[in-house]
Amino acid sequence: MVACALTIAGSDSGGGAGIQADLKTFSALGVYGASVITAVTAQNTVAVAAVHAIPPEVVAAQIAAVLDDIRVDAVKIGMLGDARVIETVAEALKGYQGSVVLDPVMVAKSGARLLPEAARAALVAHLLPRADLLTPNLPEAAALLGLPEAVSDADMQDHGARLRDMGARAVLMKGGHGAGETCTDWLLSAAARRLDAPRIATRNTHGTGCSYSSAIAAGLAQGMTLTEAVTRAHGWLHKAIRAADGLGIGHGHGPVHHFHEVWT
Fold this sequence. Notes:
The chain is an alpha/beta fold. The protein has a single domain, classed as Ribokinase (UDP-N-acetylmuramoyl-L-alanine:D-glutamate ligase, 3-Layer(aba) Sandwich). Helix content is 36%, strand content 20%. The chain has eight helices and nine strands. It has helices at residues 18-28, 56-69, 83-92, 120-126, 138-145, 153-165, 208-221, 226-242, and strands at 4-12, 32-43, 48-53, 74-77, 99-102, 133-134, 171-173, 182-188, 192-198. The strands form two sheets. It has a six-stranded mixed sheet. It has a three-stranded antiparallel sheet with strand order 7-8-9, with helices on both faces. A hairpin with a 4-residue loop joins β2 (32-43) and β3 (48-53). The protein is globular. The model has no long low-confidence stretch (mean pLDDT 95).
């Protein structure tokens, strides 16, 4: 049977991030994708014009409908919108036994805030302890911890360790917001693993966080170990970013090329 992954996230009308990016990623990596929409955004490559939260009871009903019928091998959680939806998702997943990848979506590439500050505590309390892997970028890790952004490898490892102490079983600290010619990520679990890639000079990076976490969830759904899933996702995303300029989508931060291995 084909592996199946479920994304619980917001919809991006521009198609570059959120549910759309997650489903593209699952498909590109050979995994069947199911989805639960937590919010609808009026969004393109330039800005987020509006956000409409889906009622918590409808979010819960979507999760129940999928889990009642479809064997879900891994769950990726992205944009959740507010504290009530966070609590709803945590409750709905209480009996779920598969892997959970939590991408703490807080700010869009355009700079628009996607998670109210008041919801941060709910995310920490209800979903960090449920996460087999937490995938924050540097600003998100700092916001979750209430600390300045990491600026060194030592800072990244320290922030990751602190987030593990808060409940996440493993943390992938993403260095895309860092500086320098090399982009460095740190996978922190029982051991620390460094992943390096040349930094690509492009503005077309919309949806990188969504796609990265979804690619990892796809690997876990296919039976890979966490290290295997992260390593494959890291290499795949680097190629997707490298091919992004060839798409020519929008006038702002365009999307990565999810299907770079299929068509150009």
